[in-house]
Amino acid sequence: MNTKITFLGKEFANSIVTASGILGVTGATMVNNVKEKGVGGVTMKSVSVEPREGHPNPTITTGEHFMINAVGLSNAGVENSVKEIKYYKENCQAPLIASVFAGDIKEFGEVTKKISEASPDFIEVNISCPNVEDEFGKPFAADPQLATAVTKIVKENTDIKVIVKLSPNVENIGKIAQAVEAAGADAICAVNTFNGTLIDVRTREFVLHNKFGGVSGPAIKPMAVKAVYDISQAVKIPIIGTGGVTTGQDVLEMMLAGATLVGVGSGVHFGGGKDVFKNMMGEIKEIMEEEGIEDLMEMIGGVKSDD
Fold it and tell me: Which CATH class is domain 5-53+77-195+214-299?
């Protein structure tokens, strides 16, 4: 039974990767996520050129089947992240995905060039953030032309493989995927969180200080799986599927929809805490044995269709 996955020429011990910034942001904690928790690879927290404090509290709350956050992309800046990546690379062989974001197209090039100095295995480009040069702050992921421009400038500033992270809050995610593929993206990560909000009926106030936030957790899984499938039908580059994954069965479902790797974020909270990754792999191996699956890569895009 083989659970190894090849993604853009790199070998992962299994198909599970941490979603951006999950379970710590330092090089040491990311190393631990691989060696102690058993993930196949890690994704760093998204970073910008300069440090950001993020939004004031409260920034996160949970329900029975969902989590909503408006952390505001707080981070220590790219200089600090370069140091953490170098530490990780010196102490761990599992692939590392750096993640970057910016408020304008030029800045995407700057942060990409800087983080490339640390030689991460891949660079994830978070285009779900708003374009500050746009009058209404339109997210880059909502416009094929903006998504194309960001992808192109990122590719111009690095020789490292680029993964573009897409937002589900669009009319046709397949068209956005096609745009970034045409612009040179090597892979796609989908999906980011869904737009949402909560209101306290007693105080009649928004629960989050920012009013609105991103919804994640088990409640979004069916929509995330559909997004991954839609993207897989629209492009030929590989996909990291993420959104609502809490079990080994969820991982396999994402893979059948077309994902090569599967990101786990809020699933740590909903799926059993720090042991969630080992539990997922145990379930995956059990299903593989029961179904006679010799190689985990057989599952990629394996959903049956009459089309």
Answer: alpha beta
Sign of the four-CA dihedral 34, 37, 39, 43: negative
SS3 string, the chain, reads CECCEEECCEEECCCEEECCCCCCCCHHHHHHHHHCCCCCEEECCCECCCCECCCCCCCEEECCCCEEECCCCCECCHHHHHHHHHHHHHHCCCCEEEEECCCCHHHHHHHHHHHHHHCCCEEEEECCCECCCCCCCCEHHHCHHHHHHHHHHHHHCCCCEEEEECCCCCCCHHHHHHHHHHCCCCEEEECCCEEEECEECCCCEECCCCCEEEEECHHHHHHHHHHHHHHHHHCCCCEEEECCCCCHHHHHHHHHHCCCEEEECCHHHHCCHHHHHHHHHHHHHHHHHHHCCCEHHHHCCCCCCCC
Q: What is the mean pLDDT of the chain?
A: 93
Q: Fill in the amino acid letter for 140.
A: F
Position 235 pLDDT exceeds 80: yes
Interatomic CA distance for residues 156 and 133, integer angstroms = 21
Of 129, 224, 240, 252, the catalytic one is: 129
Give 136's pLDDT tier (boundaries 50, 70, 90): low
What's the whole-model pTM score? 0.95
Q: What is the pLDDT of residue 76?
A: 87
Q: How far apart are the first and last CA of the chain?
A: 31
| Alpha carbons 163 and 165: distance in angstroms, whole number | 6
- Residue 305 sits at φ, ψ, to 5 deg, of -145, 145
Under 8 Å between Cβ of 123 and 99? yes
Higher-scoring residue by pLDDT: 293, 37: 293
Active site residue 129: yes
Residue 304: what residue type? K
* CB-based contacts of 278, cutoff 8 Å, min separation 6: 37, 38
